[in-house]
């Protein structure tokens, strides 16, 4: 009988681009996980905002098992029923007229940025190619998406990077006015910056971006890879703000843990991605689309979405109570069930130190950069799990503060 893999096998066999925790989870149910030794953890990380319905949700398991007995893969020489059903569902639930499927958020953003440039080229000419993005933004790991992203650390050493990309200051409309002109093809923005520190956009800022894009005949692109599919308490965060983009990207929670991404756009823009201009081998995969349809139909209900807002208040109440006792946070912020707790000046840059202590207490959490403790739990996490998870977090923070 073969031996179970160990954490040491990571160093032995895998490229060292990650530094995973020593624990290896092997089973999950709801918002709880168990490792190789049978130890239990409460999951506030949610696979980085992916496991929107927790682990092994019955609706997703049923969809996957049902499709597994029918059809796994075809190629884009053909279409398939799950892809068509998912496209119809997303179009009917959003501003969009058309959907494009792929396997990840990075791929969805790659398609969006290519479409924006291609549309501008087709509609206005080759000169209209400038993309405006924002500092501290994150849009994926392809060379194009890290270049649009506003964190140079992700593109250093991979140059030369694509050109004609400029970065403004998030939530600062004047900084966009200084950069935008008639050569701008698109403004790309996260309605809530995730990796950049869990920073929600101000409503006036997004409304201002919409007006500037209209004025300069540029497309407004919303990256909702992390904020989408119920995370904000709305199916998509643009609905919370009342600002409609021309292109929207979605992934992470879209498949509830199964790899899938999508780009949504309008009939005005979609024709520029004509036959042969772009593609994805696994885009529209029947297994992925069947699971994603089940996820969207389960999440986009009044019960789940209103529950997100109630749980947001519960999380914030706990975090603020912990802070009153330990003084470790400067600010608690976020929308829905994407929350960030920025470290107080005395602990600046040390958010990551809390994670292994939390694991020892039986809690999984995240960071968003060096200074923000991040949480992106299941949208349907029980109050019992929230309360117990926060008790474990407080024990970890108590140890962190004592050892500081």
Automatic annotation (TrEMBL):
Main location: cytoplasm
Entry cofactors: pyridoxal 5'-phosphate
Pfam families: Aminotran_3
GO-annotated molecular function: identical protein binding; N2-acetyl-L-ornithine:2-oxoglutarate 5-aminotransferase activity; pyridoxal phosphate binding
Keywords per UniProt: Amino-acid biosynthesis, Aminotransferase, Arginine biosynthesis, Cytoplasm, Pyridoxal phosphate, Transferase
Subunit structure: Homodimer.
Protein name listed in UniProt: Acetylornithine aminotransferase
Source organism of this protein record: Chromohalobacter israelensis (strain ATCC BAA-138 / DSM 3043 / CIP 106854 / NCIMB 13768 / 1H11)
